[in-house]
Specification:
Length: 125
């Protein structure tokens, strides 16, 4: 009886602290960037991620996420990344994971980036 109670208690604790979206979909998304003309630096949160055309891992977050495109001889362009609700988060509700929802919120996994590719036209100076 004691062993069964410990197993049930252990499973309950595990399920209640599971952060489903963070585990199943991660905390980053791969996003493809292209520019016309090619060869622009992609900058996210002050860090250069890649040079177009390219794909970069962008961490999710609940706040507004912006990406800048810089190329010599062209105006810098800033683009807001759009997000949608990540339905995998609903698994926390089904499994009773209030703590998991908090973890998903903290890691940004409540949302996911959509679309997964951006094409930007740069204007010359």
């Amino acid at each position: 009886m004691k062993k069964t109670l410990l197993i049930v208690l252990g499973l309950s604790m595990t399920l209640s602290t599971t952060s489903c979206a963070s585990i199943f979909t991660g905390t980053k998304d791969s996003i493809a960037f292209t520019t016309t003309p090619e060869g622009a630096k992609v900058i996210h949160k002050g860090k250069e991620k890649c040079t177009t055309p390219c794909t970069a891992e962008i961490p999710r977050g609940l706040g507004k996420q912006m990406v800048m495109f810089e190329k010599e001889g062209f105006q810098t362009k800033e683009v807001k990344l759009t997000k949608t609700f990540n339905p995998v988060t609903l698994l926390n509700i089904l499994l009773g994971g209030a703590i998991g929802i908090g973890i998903d919120a903290a890691t940004g996994s409540l949302t996911k980036y959509t679309p997964k590719s951006y094409t930007v036209d740069l204007e010359s100076k």
